[in-house]
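Dear support,

We are seeing what looks like truncated structure output for some complexes. This example has two components. We would appreciate it if you could run it in full and send us the complete token output so we can diff it against ours.
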Amino acid sequence: QKEVEQNSGPLSVPEGAIASLNCTYSDRGSQSFFWYRQYSGKSPELIMSIYSNGDKEDGRFTAQLNKASQYVSLLIRDSQPSDSATYLCALEDSWGKFQFGAGTQVVVTP
Amino acid sequence: GAGVSQSPSNKVTEKGKDVELRCDPISGHTALYWYRQSLGQGLEFLIYFQGNSAPDKSGLPSDRFSAERTGGSVSTLTIQRTQQEDSAVYLCAAGQGAGETQYFGPGTRLLVL
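Here is the complete output from our reference environment:
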């Protein structure tokens, strides 16, 4: 079982709609969670971090964390073609080591 | 991102040659990771340095790969006797550790002919 699981996609989203990305993890001791965006040919860049259960909003992005159910999600509201990218879920496990999911490819169609 | 630099940005080498890739994080970034990313694939963990602790080398694919970090700052990833399957983008990421964000460098694109 992988530490961090994501659907690989592609997730096709009409422009203006909400994109919903999910991530599950196996290490219950994980405390810090991150979402990165990676454009083709570029390095991953941080979108959001979340540490507490509940929702955290930043502009059009909302991260949701549920430690009891061991999942973290990312919502992208009013999706734009520029949001087309691969989104990586990451966490710091109970040993202090970063673990990344394989990423979900999002395609926003005009 | 946040000042992590890598060099060279591109490297073309012949099969069997050795290569050295460099990562220069921001001062104070105690955690440093190396990843490999093949075309269209996810991040493959290679090695992790945290402060003065012994590095986690569990991701190194073979004994041809090694890495060191001098003075808790600059890190060098060395690939000996390169093979064509080593062709990939090698990414370095660094952060302050303990729940803090990692920031990625721009990567080194390695092509082994």
